[in-house]
Write a structure and sequence with these properties.
single chain, 278 residues, mainly alpha, 2 domains, two-stranded antiparallel ribbon, 10 helices, 2 strands, globular
Length: 278
């Protein structure tokens, strides 16, 4: 490996750790000391940034108005779920979002195949980011909501870190070369083990009443779907021909790069807790 490449990788690694050391404690304090409303505002901010990154990737420059309209409409499901403290209003809001996007494109585009593509991208952004992320707000509304939020975050972020460093150190067998050439089977296994470890640590610290069996099931399940979420975002980036969704988090890329696994894991965790543990 040439000296230039080594220096570049060291620089990326340093940025990655500095970003984590700055944002990590701030995130912990915000969740631990904040109310349900402040957590909702935090998730809302993350969703706004993620929607902006997503629509910037998938919409062409000439449809930038559609991007901002999609962001505005995309916040409605999250606001509705927080306001109703549940899923009761989500269907109606999704209907409003769908009709709103149809109406917008009705008056802003000629009826070509690109219109169908843009409409699909608009709806996908709402379902993929806003609806999935809203489950974090639902988790916060549960009994021991703060503890469960930490449990989910620790499981996913531990998995991300484990997959990254295991893959760099031991990775030889490609997981999905056409979608994400950098991901390996070894990294996948390391990430899964790290997810389980993260779940176990949080359980021992703040969720001692959670049975070991549930901890293991959630750790494994979230570890798996988190990596699926990571691959799905990589698929979107590959189709959009971009390396990162953004640059807001040095060493990590964009906000969507950071929460891609969380978007898939949060709904799984919420419904598992709601059905089996509530």
């Amino acid at each position: 490996m040439c000296a230039g490449k080594i220096a570049m990788e060291l620089g990326v690694g340093l940025k990655r750790w500095l970003t984590a050391l700055i944002t990590g404690p701030l995130l912990i304090l915000a969740i631990a000391l904040g109310s349900k409303f402040s957590f909702f505002l935090l998730v809302l901010l993350v969703v706004i940034i993620s929607l902006y990154e997503f629509y910037s990737m998938v919409f062409k420059e000439e449809t930038r108005i559609a991007k901002w309209f999609g962001i505005s409409v995309g916040l409605l499901p999250l606001i509705a779920i927080y306001s109703s403290n549940g899923l009761q209003s989500i269907l109606g809001i999704l209907v409003v979002c769908t009709i709103g996007l149809f109406t917008f494109f009705l008056f802003s585009n000629k009826p070509t195949i690109s219109l169908i593509n843009d409409l699909g991208k608009g709806i996908l952004g709402i379902l993929y980011i806003s609806v999935l992320a809203s489950h974090l707000v639902l988790i916060r509304g549960l009994s021991f909501g703060k503890e469960w939020v930490f449990f989910v975050l620790a499981t996913i972020f531990a998995g991300d870190t484990g997959a990254y460093y295991t893959g760099r150190a031991l990775g030889k067998h490609k997981l999905s070369p056409t979608i994400s050439p950098g991901k390996t089977m070894e990294g996948c296994i390391g990430g899964l083990l790290a997810s389980v470890l993260g779940a176990m640590v949080v359980r021992s610290l703040i969720l001692p009443h959670l049975k070991l069996s549930h901890t293991l099931i959630l750790g494994i399940a979230m570890g798996i779907v988190g990596q699926i979420g990571d691959l799905c975002e990589s698929m979107i980036k590959r189709a959009a021909r971009v390396k990162d969704s953004g640059r807001i988090l040095p060493g990590h890329g964009g906000m969507l790069d950071r929460i891609d696994g969380l978007l898939f894991a949060a709904p799984l965790a919420y419904y598992y807790i709601w059905v089996l543990l509530k």
